[in-house]
Write a structure and sequence with these properties.
Distance between the termini: 28 Å
Bound molecules: flavin-adenine dinucleotide
CATH superfamily of the largest domain: Butyryl-CoA Dehydrogenase, subunit A, domain 3
Structural class: alpha+beta
CATH architecture of the largest domain: Up-down Bundle
Number of strands: 9
CATH class of the largest domain: Mainly Alpha
CATH topology of the largest domain: Butyryl-CoA Dehydrogenase, subunit A, domain 3
Length: about 375
């Protein structure tokens, strides 16, 4: 497989690098302290088309290939992770289900608004009793004439506060097997009976809001089932397809953060002097740097390979899980070493190393924990 990127991908990489250096990195600490991204930065993201990276040009997006999108996320996560979170959920898990399985009418109605950044999108699957066991959701939807009535609660929803549309999973019946029949709905902010609940206080990703969503006899038009009547009861399949792609994005975020940490460590090892020498001349520091670089090299190959496979239209369930598992576990190991190499300074808020340490921890949890990725990989290996 050839990883020489086409010219347009390299141009995109350069554009994002410049945006990160000029606009995002200088305000990263401010965003961390104020726990919000300034409106003018969100506008710049809109102007660059970042809300429509993966949405096809036909629906107003940039229509990037998976590999190009991965490279954008890799670059943008070399600074505060919340910037990626602001655009990624909209482009990805929040709206991609509509692109995969929505009716043409739904695509035309919603995707251009998301692509332009006029509307943000969120993905609402998790509930207090349904995390890894996502099929165990309790939110229900009952058909009542020309509309559905939703009742229940979602929690830990990224961008819950700023999203205008929510790809939401609810139980619409029972299968013969006794398992719940799940349907995916498009819920718009302001629909009667829908409100935003508590905002979570988190360990990291401070500039990204994570909220509850509350449905209290929430009225949704019949036509808001993703894919229409034919897709009633098929929502869990939509959700799993959405997450396959999301896993590559998580891998890219972990890769970008790891590369940034390595770059910071190399600089620090050259300039920090102890015992009369730069610490980079000590073999134990060199070994840490070499291990970090080696892991990043391996992670990048896996991720780019899986992204290219997806662009070739191949099934990537196993590869996406492997890339997510490897890159996200790698990022935590690398962040730990990065603190070690920076010594006491690594622990101080003056440098962003401790922020990366906290932020990369999340990648091993959401969009499927490391344990769930191992289950998916093993299931695929052992299937007949
Ligand atoms: C900041 C943040 C943002 C999030 N954003 C969203 C969002 O936008 N939309 C959304 O729908 N969800 C979101 N989530 C939810 C996230 O996807 C879940 O937290 C995640 O899937 C894990 O579920 P859980 O927290 O309930 O943990 P649990 O499922 O309770 O897992 C607890 C532990 O048990 C392990 N475990 C569970 N089952 C097994 C098993 N069968 N074998 C071995 N080990 C197992 C897990 O790996 C984990 O270590 C977000 C979470 C966070 C923290």
């Amino acid at each position: 497989m050839d990883f020489n990127m086409p010219e347009d991908v390299e141009i995109m990489r350069t554009t994002i690098k410049k945006f990160v250096e000029k606009d995002l990195e200088p305000i990263s600490q401010q965003v961390e302290e104020e726990a919000r991204i300034p409106d003018e930065i969100v506008q710049k993201m809109r102007d660059l088309g970042l809300f429509g990276l993966a949405i096809p040009e036909k629906y107003g997006g940039l229509g990037l290939s998976t590999i190009a999108e991965i490279i954008v996320y890799e670059e943008i996560t070399k600074t505060n992770a919340c910037f990626r979170s602001r655009i990624g959920t909209s482009n990805g898990i929040g709206s991609i289900g509509i692109y995969y399985d929505g009716t043409e009418e739904q695509k035309k109605k919603y995707l251009p608004r998301v692509a332009s950044g006029e509307w943000s999108a969120a993905f609402a699957l998790s509930e207090p009793e349904a995390g890894s066991d996502a099929a165990n959701i309790k939110t229900t939807a009952e058909l009542d004439g020309d509309h559905w009535v939703l009742n229940g609660m979602k929690h830990f929803i990224t961008n819950g506060d700023c999203a205008h549309l929510f790809t939401t999973l609810a139980v619409t019946g029972k299968k013969e097997s006794g398992r719940s029949e799940i349907t995916a709905f498009i819920i718009e902010k302001g629909m009667p009976g829908f409100s935003i609940g508590k905002k979570e206080k988190k360990m990291g990703l401070k500039g990204s809001e994570t909220t509850q969503l509350l449905f209290d006899d929430c009225i949704i038009p019949k036509e808001n089932v993703i894919g229409g009547d034919a897709m009633i009861g098929q929502g869990f399949k939509t959700a799993m397809r959405v997450l396959d792609k999301g896993r590559l994005t998580m891998g890219a975020c972990a890769l970008g953060a790891s590369q940034k940490l390595l770059d910071m460590c190399v600089d620090y090892a050259k300039q920090r002097v102890q015992f009369g020498k730069p610490i980079g001349q000590f073999q134990m520091i060199q070994a840490m740097l070499a291990d970090m670089a080696t892991e990043i090299y391996a992670g990048r190959q896996m991720l780019y390979h899986a992204a290219c496979m997806r662009d070739e239209g191949r099934k990537i369930t196993r590869e996406a899980s492997m890339a997510k598992l490897f890159c996200t576990e790698m990022a935590s190991r690398i962040a730990d070493k990065a603190i070690q190499i920076h010594g006491g300074m690594g622990y101080m808020k003056e440098l962003p190393v401790e922020m990366f340490y906290r932020d990369v921890r999340l990648y091993r949890i959401y969009e499927g924990t490391s344990e769930i990725q191992r289950m998916i990989i093993a299931r695929d290996l052992l299937k007949d």
